[in-house]
DNA sequence: GAGTGGTCTAGACCACACG
DNA sequence: GTGTGGTCTAGACCACTCT
């Protein structure tokens, strides 16, 4: 047994706690990031780092994966691994600033089963689906699809209503009418997810990117008038709630360029 | 080039979209989970699965990693890979049910730098740190540390105040006084993190487990009276906000046992 | 002891960005 | 072309759980 422990020896291993190498590596790197690096700096490449720490590249990558999940690093294929800027505070206000959204388009098709259930409509009933991007500091940090049943926005022009073609005119029409609605309130949920193909494309990230999934139920007249499913880049965003008046929370970003190009 | 694509051939690869094998695998598995499996069922072991799909075990594991991050699978060393139950809705109410918390202990030491800044106190000033567990369905799904400056709870008995020994009597004393405070409101943030050693231990999970980090600032008299940092298991929790009255959101859990033992 | 997931290795090749 | 991160492989051994 003692032999086993020694043989495995990860350089710091003690018989007491067989800490995985990659986790120990992460700890070392965290300390280095905190003390010796500035946001935007480029780390040595993975092959050099793994050699320096005396581990296989795959093991080093496991540590980097953790740090990327925590938003401490940004890896760019063909470029290198950079130190990330602190996460942005993203307000999820009751009436979230509408100028921070960029409309993409809107379609008219059945919603996902879970959404249809929440809306209290048949699973095969088509609804308006407005897609838009949450912009911050000039870049897309979140993608949202807003599902609105026909009955809630009865005045969408028939030109749009009958067509399933996605366009932004329909989006504006739906949003306009939704804003006029008297809402009783909103309830929200947050959970962890991964970006599927469509969202990944909108966020300009590879599929599988971890995202914070924010689901908003807009209540009106005792029921749910609309549902919004927003996916925010988990590496870049810190969602902020109910900060009445407190809007910022975001450092003025001296090294904003780190996140500028995705 | 065409040769390259064919040689790489992942079984479904088309020249158009060089989709990674592990991502394609995930898609296949998601479909299988949706249609052929019940929560709590055990999947074939990794060696069998990788052979069946004709990939290396590491590649299969990459797909399973994704599914675990999404909360679709639970992997237990020595046991196998199980289909997870749907995530629990965890209310983050203004006055979150106090009986869903289990007090662990409380200490008296300087808070992390970021917390001290928020509280507007010197980084080296000791504060009360109450640690407790969020329980649901009989299991710990979140761990919280509540930081309260001395000035906010002046009536903590001197027996506790002078000692840095962690115990639950101090915790109760601090919580009691905090409840009597008149709060102007609370602001919250949610972001993705990974469980460090201490939290991991409290949650009975390995270090590096992804967690939703919920930071609550309790406002009083124009300032921040206290700060709570809660880490919830990202694989099991869906945080719910402002669901006035709507408390549940959690299925009655016919296969609750899936999550019973961590 | 047998079976499972977790860690680690060494090496190969691919996709992408840049000069 | 060169250098970077991303994917994939085949194999080994460890830690854990159950019988």
Automatic annotation (TrEMBL), chains A, B:
<dbReference type="InterPro" id="IPR000524">
    <property type="entry name" value="Tscrpt_reg_HTH_GntR"/>
</dbReference>
<keyword id="KW-0804">Transcription</keyword>
<dbReference type="InterPro" id="IPR011663">
    <property type="entry name" value="UTRA"/>
</dbReference>
<feature type="domain" description="HTH gntR-type">
    <location>
        <begin position="19"/>
        <end position="86"/>
    </location>
</feature>
<dbReference type="InterPro" id="IPR050679">
    <property type="entry name" value="Bact_HTH_transcr_reg"/>
</dbReference>
<keyword id="KW-0805">Transcription regulation</keyword>
<dbReference type="InterPro" id="IPR036390">
    <property type="entry name" value="WH_DNA-bd_sf"/>
</dbReference>
<dbReference type="Pfam" id="PF00392">
    <property type="entry name" value="GntR"/>
</dbReference>
<dbReference type="InterPro" id="IPR028978">
    <property type="entry name" value="Chorismate_lyase_/UTRA_dom_sf"/>
</dbReference>
<dbReference type="Pfam" id="PF07702">
    <property type="entry name" value="UTRA"/>
</dbReference>
<dbReference type="InterPro" id="IPR036388">
    <property type="entry name" value="WH-like_DNA-bd_sf"/>
</dbReference>
<keyword id="KW-0238">DNA-binding</keyword>
<protein>
    <submittedName>
        <fullName>GntR family transcriptional regulator</fullName>
    </submittedName>
</protein>
